[in-house]
Specification:
three-stranded mixed beta sheet, Ubiquitin-like (UB roll), six-stranded mixed beta sheet, alpha/beta, Rossmann fold, about 375 residues
Amino acid sequence: MSSSELPVARYRIPHPEGYTQVSVARIGIVGFPNVGKTTFFNALTGLNAPTAAHPFSTADPNVGVAKIPDPDLDEAARLEGSAKTVHATLELLDLPAMVKPGHGAGFGARFLGRLREMEALAIVLRSFEDEAVPSDESGTDALAQAQELLVELTLADLEVFERRREKIVKEATADAGKKGAAQAISRAAALLEEGMQLRTEHWEDDQLVAFRDMAPLTLKPAVWVVNVAEDSGDSLDIIEELETLVPGGDTIVVVSAQLEEEGTLLSPEDRRELFEGLGLGQGALDKVVRAAYRAMNLISFYTLGPKESHAWTIQKGARAPDAAGKVHSDMQRGFIRAEVAPLPVVIGDGGWDEAKKAGHVRVEGKDYTVTESDVMLVRFSV
């Protein structure tokens, strides 16, 4: 089409091959044996990956996708009469448990590569007693586990950076253009030698480019998941203790993975009633999603229409054309303007058309910064 005034952000263009792949936030789940990693994975994905009351029951990685709860999207889809509703998702990788220091070689080398591919880490800590689930390989002190895991992540990165530092320093003596990268890598290696996580420091874009091939684990956003017993009560003390240990900016959530996994067996209505009755809100997935989105600096925006209502994930600070490109590459190339309104306003008005009649839809240009929960209708020309 040569030009368009169609609400193409609300209605699917009938050429699937023209769509850009929706970027899915990928999170690697790590922890010691018997901390409840796979139970937590099952709770988030609704899958039934095998668990057992003995160490190292997860021999191979489990991979699953968690659909992000979004009641507002569901309500908007109902108002629009959408034939299809597409939630944002998280891709989860449940890795085999790492060996506790002194008991083996830490992270298995063959799984480190998979972990480095993730955008963020969910680090599961055990804080429950259960005679049926041995704690010899993990302990039940979440603070001690966090300290040990910080060390293991640091050592894993240090090994990579030391190898790279030796090579890049030699290369920089012959190629002045590599001097900046050599300095950045040397500085990072020195920090790791001191036991510091790389995300505790500020790095310029060119320095991050120098690190890219190494995909440092200690630079990835981290969500610390404290797995507690169902009747654990107030967990404020453990959160406050962990906040003094983990890098600033990391997020801590407290869940009962066993309870959450059991909740996946219930109907959505019964599950919602159970969690609300226990004061758990939407449950673990909602907590982890919010924490992961904050950690990875992500937001959601929406497209609505009778054919499909869709939640999209994008980096905070993205401009309107970048958001349009998530829906279709043609929209980004030929972006003219976007009609925008907050999703809660659209719902409050009874739908997109009603919000427009009420004067709550505004027009934004190429420099507009997309904000959380924007509904966008894009005008474009190709």
